[in-house]
Specification:
Blueprint: H1 6-45, H2 65-71, H3 74-107, H4 113-123, H5 128-141, H6 148-173, H7 176-184, H8 189-197, H9 202-218, H10 221-226, H11 235-240, H12 252-272, H13 274-282
Helix pairs in contact: 1-12, 2-12, 3-6, 3-9, 4-6, 6-9, 7-8, 9-13
Length: 288
């Protein structure tokens, strides 16, 4: 029987310790890399104009002047309301059509289901600029230019494919016995979807809904193209229109304050739904 020497035991423990230190060091590096831009935006947002070009990584003095300047702009407050309305409508529409389409693709066997899934996935691969001109003509023909519905329509085109794809994957993994029991009890496909499947799909819905909300909240190109007046613009466009005479005269403190204000709601949403998001991202990884 092999008995390790004290030197071998110490060497093994040292390797374990070094492995743990390397792991936690890597985690710390990832956290710093991920959070530093947002942290530096907060630091910059609290600087005065004379302090902006001084390299400083700490908040030496709390200054809320830039935040008050942003919040006193009616156009910016209006843009926040527009972004909330549009992002919420995009999530609701994507969830409604995504759930019904995912149920059909995941549970109903019909010819051409595989190619249809690939077509749905392929739609999300087109860059926005490639469809911009054609989509502009469609929006103008529908007479919804400079209207929130133009953005809801255009955003849904790009958020619906990944919503359908993710929800279809989850619905396929649900036990068939649940659906069979519901049909035996006389439930229609609508009742089966909304009463039986939907409670089990909350993690996936939370994940896809939050991704759709973030995509709609942060989108810039369509918002810039399909809106014209300040009362219809969204937050990204409102921030981009904060300008000065030249690059060195831009009110960077005000821009950073506006960026922090519009980022905080997303951070809060992620913190609230983080358990469902993790569950939604991991439960589809293994088939049981």
């Amino acid at each position: 029987m092999f008995n390790p020497t004290p030197q071998q035991i110490l060497s093994k423990q040292a390797k374990k310790l070094l492995g743990k230190l390397a792991f936690y060091g890597l985690v710390l590096l990832i956290i710093l890399f991920s959070t530093f831009p947002f942290y530096y935006a907060i630091v910059t947002s609290m600087k005065t104009s004379s302090q902006l070009f001084e390299v400083n990584y700490w908040v030496e003095q709390v200054n809320w002047k830039n935040y008050l300047t942003v919040l006193n702009q009616e156009a910016f407050i209006s843009s926040i309301g527009n972004s909330v309305l549009i992002a919420t409508l995009v999530v609701l529409v994507s969830m409604l059509f995504g759930l019904t389409a995912a149920y059909a693709l995941g549970r109903v066997h019909f010819k051409g289901r595989g190619p249809l899934m690939l077509i749905i996935l392929g739609v999300s691969m087109f860059p926005q600029v490639a469809v911009l001109s054609g989509l502009f003509e469609v929006i103008r023909a529908l007479n919804i230019y400079n209207n929130p519905m133009a953005l809801v329509f255009s955003y849904t085109i790009f958020t619906l494919p990944f919503t359908v794809w993710i929800l279809t994957t989850f619905i396929k993994q649900l036990p068939k016995e649940l659906e069979e029991a519901a049909l035996v009890d006389g439930a229609t496909p609508w009742l089966t979807l909304f009463k039986v499947f939907m409670p089990l799909l909350w993690p996936a819905m939370a994940t896809t809904g939050l991704l759709a909300f973030i995509a709609a909240w942060n989108e810039f190109l369509f918002a810039l193209t399909f809106t014209l007046t300040d009362d219809q613009r969204t937050v990204p466009v409102a921030i981009a229109l904060i300008s000065g005479g030249s690059a060195y005269e831009l009110p960077w403190g005000i821009i950073m304050a506006a960026s922090v204000i519009v980022t905080v709601p997303l951070v809060i949403l992620v913190l609230i739904f983080q358990r469902r998001i993790v569950s939604g991202l991991t439960s589809g990884a293994v088939k049981g």
